[in-house]
Amino acid sequence: MNSPDKLLLWDIDGTIIETKGAGETAMNRAFKEVFNLDADLYAIDYSGRTDPLLGRMLCEFYGIPDSPTNNQAFVNAYVRNLSAILAESPATLLPGMPVLEILANRSDCLQGLLTGNVQSGGKCKLESVDAWKFFAFGAFADYCYDRNELGPKALEIVKDDFGVAFNQEQTFVIGDTPRDVECGQHIQAQTIAVATGKYSLGELAESEPDFLFEDLSDTEAFLAVLD
Ligand SMILES: [Mg+2]
User: Fold this and answer.
1) Rounded to the nearest whole angstrom, what is the distance from the C-alpha of residue 178 to the centroid of ligand 1?
2) What is the structure's pLDDT at 3?
3) Residues 202 and 95 in one domain
């Protein structure tokens, strides 16, 4: 098999799936469980942030000390609640996501995750739509507060685990928020923004992605970007 010459790094929420607020509800429940306080994730600017950062932001917002122990307790409770919620009400795939299987079967593509989710949370979300199997690896946000650290982490995993180096033209970061675009620009990758999350086409355009889609339902148009 030829080695792949395209690297695709996918965001999860708002890009691949929609969870109908499961993540937000799980965070609020986790905060209540761990700190015995009614929190409202919607009170903070949470899109595109990493899970541990959301724990820190909620702690700051509600005046709770953000220690590593508190943060880990929050993240653990979050994943436990997320898993229970998704078992009742699974995530749904966004338009065009059959493309994940097409890409997973192409020997010229290496497909991974680049996400603010902690690994157990991301796995739980993608398994609920049977899409976890399409990714060869992931750069997850366990113990990570800055999404921009995840791009270099992804490239390091690719080099160490797959022995392949991709140049900037061969690396694509796909996401639904200006923070995904910024994270891709941080590693000089090609950035593909898709307006299936909370941001409109116009809002995403301001972050100057290389490619911008309303959704990814036009598989041919999306695949054309890679070639
Ligand atoms: Mg997202």
Assistant:
1) 9
2) 86
3) yes
H-helix or E-strand spanning residue 57: helix 51-61
Q: Is residue 140 part of a domain?
A: yes
pLDDT in tens, 81-101: 999 999 999 999 999 999 999
How far apart are the CA of 65 and the centre of ligand 1, in A? 27
Answering whether pTM is above 0.85, one says yes
CA of 210 to the centre of ligand 1 (A): 17
CA dihedral 126, 132, 134, 138 (to 10 degrees): 100
Query: Where in the sequence is the domain holding 112, given as residue range(s)?
Result: 6-18+91-226
CA distance 127 to 144: 22
Rounded to whole angstroms, the Cα distance separating 10 from 6 reads 13
Residue 198 CA, ligand 1 centroid: distance in Å: 8
Strands 171-175 and 137-139: unpaired
Q: Cα(28)–Cα(78) distance, rounded to whole angstroms?
A: 8
* Residue 115 CA to ligand 1 centre (angstroms): 8
